[in-house]
Design goal:
Blueprint: H1 3-7, E1 26-31, E2 34-39, E3 44-45, E4 50-53, E5 60-61, E6 69-86, E7 96-104, E8 115-120, E9 124-143, E10 149-152, E11 161-170, E12 174-180, E13 190-196, E14 208-214, E15 218-227, E16 230-236
Antiparallel strand pairs: 1-2, 3-4, 4-5, 6-9, 7-9, 8-9, 10-11, 11-16, 12-15, 13-16, 14-15
């Protein structure tokens, strides 16, 4: 057959192209006793969990464990008494914020520094201190429409997670307080407390005197002076 004979018939021509997309990687998983098949390449990554698109129906399956909105980071101070930090996420509603730990830049007398929350929104937090300080204050912020909530500390590692309750209690010229929360199923391992200067009463000289009394459904304590303001709590199992 001559080249002219071959070129005269378009249906006889064929050109093979390389595979331009990633080859399908079909995987079967069992969820709630139902076997589902999906292509690994169709998994859509969300902030804290995965959305899986079913190969056959095209529907999106949302897993049962949906994590609470959570952020954890440092607020930096440089010989100052107030500093702000933009959250790493935007919360869908105002979160509960607690101040977790003080990290001094040097071995100074930081145990006498009292941190408190000056203000916060869904996008940032402002922290005040009782004295000038250089270093960091670590905060934890959490929001969930229902409690208890599953928290994934993806700031540290996606393998760190816990169950939490969070909220606040408002005090009216009080030193003693009891904040109640729904049961976590066991006595919390930790409870964090922070004063929130929601009434602009300047909480720089107010410190927690006792915060170690907590049960399955409540935490009790007292502060060093009567306050008319808010206390945030976060209970962790």
């Amino acid at each position: 057959m001559s080249n002219d004979d071959y070129s005269s018939g378009r249906n006889k021509r064929r050109k093979t192209y390389g595979y331009e997309r990633a080859a399908p990687q079909n995987i079967e998983v069992v969820i709630d006793n139902v076997t589902r098949s999906f292509d690994r390449n169709t998994v859509v990554i969300h902030r804290d969990f995965y959305l899986v698109r079913d190969v056959v129906s095209g529907s999106v399956f949302v897993p049962t464990n949906v994590y609470a909105e959570y952020d954890e980071d440092r607020v930096a101070f440089n010989n100052t008494t107030q500093a702000s930090k933009t959250f790493n996420i935007t919360f869908s509603s105002q979160p509960a914020v607690t101040l977790f730990e003080i990290e001094p830049a040097t071995n100074d007398n930081s145990q006498n520094v009292q941190p408190f929350i000056v203000s916060h929104t869904t996008t940032q937090v402002t922290v005040g201190l009782s004295a000038p300080f250089s270093g960091n204050v670590i905060y934890r912020a959490i929001y969930s429409p229902t409690w208890p909530a599953l928290v994934q500390r993806n700031v540290i590692s996606s393998s760190f997670f816990y169950t939490a309750q969070a909220g606040y209690i408002d005090l009216a010229a009080m030193t003693d307080f009891t904040a109640s929360y729904g049961s976590l199923g066991s006595v919390p391992s930790f409870v964090f407390l922070s004063t929130y200067d929601v009434n602009s009463n300047n909480q720089a000289d107010v410190a927690f005197v006792a915060t170690g009394s907590y049960t399955l459904t409540a935490v009790s304590g007292n502060v060093s002076a009567p306050i008319t303001d808010r206390i945030y709590f976060m209970a962790i199992a």
